[in-house]
Design brief:
Helices cover 62% and strands 0% of the residues. With 186 residues, the protein is mainly alpha-helical. α3 packs antiparallel against α4 and α4 runs antiparallel to α7. It is elongated and about 65 Å long.
């Protein structure tokens, strides 16, 4: 068994932070107490989950039928993809620095650079994380509203205005939001 790598309970033998949380009976009946749900909760409570294996976490979210967890793990997947591409970005940055040290102008550096360019990588990464974040906010806001939180309460928890929460609730959570470059407010 691998210890959780979420930074909150990395000490050997420490219980996961959610293991002491008791379910709200009103919410528990809405979620359902299916065998898959019970099995997934048991795995989480005993930390028998390999937190480095995104597929295990996605399976648990699917077994629970929980769109919020699915959106959380999708966000983690995007962050991991970005992290996996860090070596390429660092190599490109080092190449640029070496060529500049040799006095090569930027126009020549760009002309001979591998594609995608570092700026293109940054743009793609920002768009991917913005899309995953928009989906997570929309689904999360909807879940909190269904559990009885007011728009004011959700706004306070998210650190946004009531109007933004209203937009999150009225938008289709499965449709990509506006691009970050156009001043997205989601």
């Amino acid at each position: 068994m691998q210890e959780p790598s979420n930074g909150d309970s990395g000490r050997a033998g420490s219980p996961p932070p959610w293991s002491q949380v008791e379910a709200d009976p009103a919410t528990a009946s809405a979620v359902g107490q299916s065998p898959a749900f019970e099995r997934a909760v048991a795995e989480l409570r005993t930390a028998e989950v390999d937190f480095g294996d995104l597929q295990v976490l996605e399976r648990l979210a699917a077994e629970l039928g929980d769109e919020v967890l699915d959106a959380v793990w999708a966000m983690i997947g995007v962050v991991r993809e970005i992290a996996d591409g860090l070596d390429v970005a660092e190599a490109q940055a080092a190449r640029i620095a070496d060529m500049r040290a040799e006095g090569i102008p930027y126009r020549d550096i760009i002309a001979t650079a591998e594609r995608p360019l570092l700026t293109q990588i940054a743009t793609m990464d920002l768009e991917a994380i913005a899309a995953a974040g928009t989906r997570l906010r929309r689904i999360g806001a909807r879940a909190l509203r269904e559990e009885g939180m007011t728009i004011d309460q959700i706004a306070k928890e998210f650190g946004v205005s009531r109007q933004r929460v209203s937009r999150l609730l009225s938008a289709d959570p499965h449709t990509p939001g506006p691009s970050w470059r156009r001043g997205s407010t989601d």
